[in-house]
Amino acid sequence: MDTSRLEAFSDGVLAIIITIMVLELHDPPGADFAALWHLAPVGLSYVLSFVYIGIYWNNHHHMLHVTRRVNGVVLWANLHLLFWLSLVPFVTAWMGKNHFAPVPTSVYGVVLLLAAIAYWVLQQVIIAAEGDHSRLAEAVGSDWKGKLSPVLYLVAIPAALVYPLVAGAIYTLVAIIWLVPDRRIERLVAAEDAVRRPGESGRR
Amino acid sequence: MDTSRLEAFSDGVLAIIITIMVLELHDPPGADFAALWHLAPVGLSYVLSFVYIGIYWNNHHHMLHVTRRVNGVVLWANLHLLFWLSLVPFVTAWMGKNHFAPVPTSVYGVVLLLAAIAYWVLQQVIIAAEGDHSRLAEAVGSDWKGKLSPVLYLVAIPAALVYPLVAGAIYTLVAIIWLVPDRRIERLVAAEDAVRRPGESGRR
Amino acid sequence: MDTSRLEAFSDGVLAIIITIMVLELHDPPGADFAALWHLAPVGLSYVLSFVYIGIYWNNHHHMLHVTRRVNGVVLWANLHLLFWLSLVPFVTAWMGKNHFAPVPTSVYGVVLLLAAIAYWVLQQVIIAAEGDHSRLAEAVGSDWKGKLSPVLYLVAIPAALVYPLVAGAIYTLVAIIWLVPDRRIERLVAAEDAVRRPGESGRR
Amino acid sequence: MDTSRLEAFSDGVLAIIITIMVLELHDPPGADFAALWHLAPVGLSYVLSFVYIGIYWNNHHHMLHVTRRVNGVVLWANLHLLFWLSLVPFVTAWMGKNHFAPVPTSVYGVVLLLAAIAYWVLQQVIIAAEGDHSRLAEAVGSDWKGKLSPVLYLVAIPAALVYPLVAGAIYTLVAIIWLVPDRRIERLVAAEDAVRRPGESGRR
Q: ipTM of the assembly?
């Protein structure tokens, strides 16, 4: 089974997640700048989550670009990732509307942590499905970002209960770390594409 | 007419169904764990429905993978299935918010039953459209899951009116039965793909 | 410019329209059958609109299947159609919640009429863009359904203000007339596909 | 990396943005024409934003049609554009519900300005990624529309605070200017397609 429909479905879900978050930006009760300013925490929370979903889409895109075939286990590992990401709009609204209060900010980190674990599981499942010559295994390499992020979340989750702003800073830091897409995959793809036959490119 | 646009539209609808359910997870009125705990029934109901829509997407994916051509009747049988699935967010919210009360839990089962019947109808209509050499007919085989599920729903629907938790357990059981995708289709596809010409693979 | 991205975008919008209508099926304030029964008019209105959007998707699918190339005018004629269809969830909710009251039922017909006109315009614009040898022109033929529907809407719109149920019956009648997809296009496509070269099929 | 998944994701997000705006068209509290008339400002605001998102989709479509390859920077420049466009439903509702009051009408222009800047950045980033022989660079040419629009927004944003209707007229004027898609790109594509080999067309 090829990856095209898995990509299409994931793109659909991620596009909806990233867009319905804005539904929580209810038009403020007033037509002045003060009313708009009142939305600042919800807006900030929205920006952070928009960037996170963007990162996931970006990395998912890169990951599936070097994946050739998927099986039933991969489909479910992918749905598992989408499940945790689907909770992002909920925790985004909860955190924003409560002005980064301790518990919502901590729960936000829990959802990020579980999404990160789900992403890692998906990666391992694809590598297992593809066997020794997996291009993804080569491309992932040491994966220091994937290893560092959960550690940072594990620091932020309890920290949020005491210093929510510290947790917010950690979430922002992780986003910045990830903003640069994995150059190694891009380089590998570029190198391979250079030697691919034109006929093959029609496959995707 | 090939299956690509049918798949694209179905993917779109299923992606939206699976994602808008989360809109019912309104941010709780409070910023503590008690407020979050209050959402547990809605959350549980969401998880169950997420898995069900995931199963339908997964099986739909497998089914259309072995389908070569569709006609107008197939398009409508597919829309009929999507109609019943589109009611899932509604019954999910109703059941969750009423803490698995008898009537909503029973109606949830009715929607699952009608979706299961619609899936079966779609399958038959595709097989009829493809004629004797339908790959889907071979792949479906005895289809014991497809035969067992409606029976279990028919038990759960009246049971819910007296013991809603029993019905909930049955819905969960059916989900677990289906979680394993149909290995036979996968095996068949793998075998056929091995002998397919590369030129043909561009068709999908 | 080929039709693939136009189809993808239209599929996306139609999938969202058909699915967000269900968001108006708010979970009823109660957990018994009476509460569910109270939703009957909204549900009926939803079923009617689901079928209408399904018909539009179906016919749009058929129309673009015999279209080879699109230009800027076609893109805008398509957006114009999507605009009127995007108002369907709004009029569906208004008509349903007011139990098929005269004015909402009449306005529902106005939206259907404008969508029908927009569909006709799109069809003409595609034929004009393709020139004399347009496959669509051949396939459309006499287009009696496309001519009859606006007439029926023009009867129903004023009738709704006095006898809303008559208008509802006319809307249902039009839906039934359209439920059968245009066999002529299907037959033409089947005939042409039979003589197409396999290499060409990769184009879609 | 080819453009197909970038297009698919962007189409998904734009389709959702253009459609969820209609969710702000809540069914009016009444079943007569007066209730409907009350929605006129929200409806007008919706029409304007629908046309704007349509223009962005249309131009995005044209832009990516002449783009061959994308890299990580392009993906993020695209997400940046989608971010500002995702705020359109929010400002549309705010402006409409407040009957084109000064501050919301001004903020609407700010979002349009930032989206225009993001579009320009995306265009430059694609040209930079493609190098000297970028077809997009040729196609864009003098880009007088892209240069004029921000100037008009910069006039409208402060003007809205005093004469909101003047700002509304300017937004409408910009939309009309853009409604005609860039003929130069179309002509270039038509010319190139005429000399392309049929085998190549399967690539998209």
A: 0.85
